[in-house]
Amino acid sequence: MDTTIKKRASNKKLKEVIDSDSYTEKPYTEREVGDGAPAENEMTEQKQENEIKAVYEPKENDKSPPGVYLRLEINLVFLGLLALALSTRLPNLDEPRYIVVKYSGIYTYFLGLFIVGRQIWRRIGNSESGIRLAFSALWRLLIFTVIPFAVYASVFYVHLLMLPKAGPHDSVMTSAFQASLQVRYTDGRGSSHQQQVTCYSFKDVNNWWLVKRPDQVSLAVSRPPDAIRHGDVVQLLHGITSRALNSHDVAAPVSPQSQEVSCYIDYNVSMPAQNLWRVDIVNRDSEDATWDSIRSLVRLVHVDSGSALRFSGRQLPAWGFHQHEVVADKVLTHQDTVWNVEEHRYTKAEDRKERERELVTAEMIPTAVTQLTFWEKFAELQYKMIAHAPDAPHGHMFASEPSEWPLLVRSIAYWLSPNSNAQVHLIGNLITWYTGSISVILYSGFLVLYAIRQRRACSDLPPMALQKFYDAAIWLAYIVITFKKFSVLNYGNIDLTEHDLLNLRWKDTWDFILHKKG
């Protein structure tokens, strides 16, 4: 796919989009923008709290687009708030506390653990029975650790139980994980049979390599088989061409900082073959020092240069059929220098033609079924979800960074009408966001100040005075007015003129979209 990236011109006030159909098919999505943290209000009546929440919650502009386009978020918010409510209200019914900040996911879990831990810590100094306190801590630990983990693990168990077959996106998993899935590899696939050494994500007859010791002439496996162990020096011969894997001090075609890797061909070249590789089994402590298929993680170190065979992650040009580049890198500890053998056979034929025919016609199916326990698959899935998060597609031109959220530096486009300038943007209420951001800073400062003065027995204000917010009516009025002004960007039901969009552009960094005239 050919893509072109253009820089945003700083002197243009509005984005001009020639073809806006792409905005109508699927709205943009963006990471969730958290709320500010308004101070807690101590209410004497539950009815008053409900009235304040009913007025406050709909007046935040950034709530509408995620609620409309990301329906799953509603369930996440509900369960997160329910967990916090149960954590705070049930143990302290005599001291009610009100939650006005939205948390979700793992942060809700950590906050709940902190609240429960603080409750147990406060009870340690009481005169209650130690056995009763221990049982109380035990059941809280059970609820907050064992039950959530059991639910979480059961979801993956059902997933793996219902989906036992291989799919098109399994290449991100390890070979052992892929081999444990139900799959049958087809035979007779074509290949270019070119001589460059490359990588690609699918299985092919050109993936076969023969591993032999340097002093061994015969390619047939001896009886009993000679096992390759950690630290052994070997040669790797391409199964189809029988040419040895080679590297020398020449820059790689796409990654010039690394060495080129190729199959050595003696066509009256001045450079001798440098085709010796040392086997470094990375996981020999947990598995075995013997090179085994599927389970052994191997690093192949070039003997002459000390570089490791590495997948560079870059694609070759058209002459390389856009396959992935393989290089020899001086940095041995890189993650992409670790390889493993997915399939293994003992070479029987001495004749090259017969051996080639055997490889081409053979169906590439593992000789033995690989079995992984549920917990091995579960652990690998957790690692892949975390480790491959950076590989996700990067944000679009309207994306924003977390550092830009407190002051609403950027807006996020969700949808643009194909016939007018009606559009939906994720944009917060400036009054609530700026008030919340400033309040967090002021609250932190006053918290430290009053904590120090209280420690020194200085009582500046009555306890109830610290819980009041005298200007709530004026602040709420500003919120309603600002919400009303920007509500046209929440629902996209009003055709906006260029003048209207300019009036809504309170910050120069906000990117609204305008149809190009003509």
Shape: extended
If you average the pLDDT, what whole number results?
70
Q: Whole-Å distance between the termini? A: 29 Å
> How many DSSP E strands?
13
Order of helices and strands: EHHHHHHHEEEEEEEEEHHEEHHHHE
The major β-sheet equals: 5 strands, antiparallel
Proportion of residues in β-strands: 5-15%
Subunit structure: Interacts with tw/POMT2.
GO molecular function: dolichyl-phosphate-mannose-protein mannosyltransferase activity
Membrane topology: Multi-pass membrane protein
Organism: Chrysodeixis includens (Soybean looper)
Model description:
The chain crosses the membrane at residues 68-86, 98-116, 137-162, 431-452, 473-492. It comes from Chrysodeixis includens. The protein is α+β, with helices and mostly antiparallel strands and 518 residues long. The protein folds into 2 domains: 15-126 and 396-515, no CATH class; 192-362, Trefoil (Acidic Fibroblast Growth Factor, subunit A) (Trefoil). Helix content is 34%, strand content 12%. It has 13 helices and 13 strands. It has helices at residues 21-25, 46-56, 64-69, 72-89, 105-124, 130-162, 175-179, 352-361, 374-387, 430-455, 472-486, 488-491, 498-504, and strands at 15-17, 198-199, 209-212, 233-238, 245-251, 259-263, 277-281, 298-302, 308-315, 324-329, 412-416, 423-426, 513-515. Strands 2, 5, 6, 9 and 10 form a 5-stranded antiparallel β-sheet that branches. The chain has a 4-stranded antiparallel β-sheet with strand order 3-4-7-8, with no helix packed on it. A hairpin with a 7-residue loop joins strand 5 (245-251) and strand 6. The radius of gyration is 32 Å and the shape is extended. Residues 1-58, 93-104 and 184-194 have low confidence and may be disordered.
